[in-house]
């Protein structure tokens, strides 16, 4: 079944990890996908890899989502080059971990600017086409730490909690146009981001996951694809934890 035939999607942070898997899942079911990431090499490589399996599905765009003007320009470019967007996935995210006592102002600003302001920038830039689109969807990738917090991640937890509040406000504001807006809150997923953890930290984390292991990027992509589908039309303003039971 091609759930996304004739659909156009934008996936930020699509160059690696969870975002690349989301782009692949949407492309596999017929979507044309704009793969957006910070560096040209990363989004270019991701698009090339997905195009090898699903020819012509992906176009790469190197843009910093924290840059408001650049995201406005990106929206225009995607509109001209691919078409009007139906699905926006805000997945770009960074960490700058450290205990609050040692956290620098720039660590706070970088994380909030990317993870939270980045979503504000893209929703502002793409909301007009979304409001006119068929089956319009916004899906924000939050985190379980935006729900339960995490020592050493005050900046990241605040950005993800903010993203959850933003999700609910956007869901209410755009509901009249049938645009749904939901958040997915991953637990610990195997990507470059979690590769930074030491083995001792990984073991401690796994001890707190009822299902007993880190998740895979496919676990998140499957949830995003469902929320992006026609079948999810009556779901909005919700947060779905995909976390092996961590937050139950
Ligand atoms: N992995 C986990 O366990 C986990 C858990 C909970 C939530 N999440 C969230 O899931 C999302 C994806 O995580 P991941 O683990 O796949 O991360 P990742 O492997 O570190 O990849 C992050 C992606 O975001 C892009 N990105 C970062 N800053 C950007 C910016 N300013 N503008 C545009 N793109 C930017 C990166 O671009 P480049 O490739 O060009 O550098 C990269 O493609 C993030 O929002 C993260 O917070 C992850």
Structure description:
The chain is built from nine helices and seven strands, in the order βαβαβαβαβααβαααβ. It is of the alpha/beta class. It has one domain: NAD(P)-binding Rossmann-like Domain (Rossmann fold, 3-Layer(aba) Sandwich), CATH 3.40.50. A seven-stranded parallel beta sheet has the order 3-2-1-4-5-6-7, sandwiched between helices. The radius of gyration is 17 Å and the shape is globular. The site of NADP nicotinamide-adenine-dinucleotide phosphate has 28 residues, from helix 1 and helix 7.
Q: Beta-sheet strand percentage?
A: 5-15%
N to C succession of SSEs:
EHEHEHEHEHHEHHHE
Number of β-strand runs: 7
Number of helices: 9
**Class by alpha and beta content:** alpha/beta
Estimate the global geometry from the Cα principal axes: globular
Bound molecule types: NADP nicotinamide-adenine-dinucleotide phosphate
Output mean pLDDT.
Answer: 98
- Radius of gyration (CA) equals 17 Å
Count of discrete structural domains: 1
* CATH hierarchy, class: Alpha Beta
> Cα distance, first to last residue?
32 Å
- CATH architecture identity: 3-Layer(aba) Sandwich
Largest sheet strand order: 3-2-1-4-5-6-7
Keyphrases for this structure?
248 residues, alpha/beta, Rossmann fold, 48% helix, globular, binds NADP nicotinamide-adenine-dinucleotide phosphate, KR_dom, NADP, 3-oxoacyl-[acyl-carrier-protein] reductase
């Amino acid at each position: 079944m091609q759930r996304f035939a004739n659909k156009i999607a934008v996936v930020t942070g699509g160059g690696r990890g969870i975002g690349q898997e989301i782009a692949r899942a949407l492309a596999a079911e017929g979507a044309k996908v704009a793969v957006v990431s910070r560096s040209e090499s990363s989004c270019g490589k991701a698009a090339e890899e997905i195009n090898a399996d699903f020819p012509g599905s992906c176009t790469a765009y190197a843009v910093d989502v924290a840059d408001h003007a650049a995201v406005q320009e990106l929206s225009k470019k995607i509109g001209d080059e691919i078409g009007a967007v139906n699905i926006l996935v805000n997945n770009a995210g960074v960490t700058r971990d450290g205990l609050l006592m040692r956290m620098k102002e720039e660590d706070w600003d970088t994380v909030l600017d990317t993870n939270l302001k980045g979503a504000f920038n893209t929703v502002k830039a793409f909301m007009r086409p979304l409001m006119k689109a068929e089956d319009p969807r916004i899906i924000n990738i939050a985190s379980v730490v935006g729900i339960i917090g995490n020592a050493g991640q005050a900046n990241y937890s605040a950005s993800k909690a903010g993203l959850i509040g933003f999700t609910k406000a956007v869901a209410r504001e755009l509901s009249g146009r049938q645009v749904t807006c939901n958040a997915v809150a991953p637990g610990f997923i195997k990507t470059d981001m979690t590769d930074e953890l030491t083995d001792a930290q990984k073991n401690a984390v796994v001890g707190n996951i009822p299902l007993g292991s880190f998740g895979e990027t496919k676990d998140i992509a499957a949830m995003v694809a469902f929320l992006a589908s026609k079948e999810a039309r009556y779901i909005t303003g919700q947060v779905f934890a995909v976390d092996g039971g961590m937050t139950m």
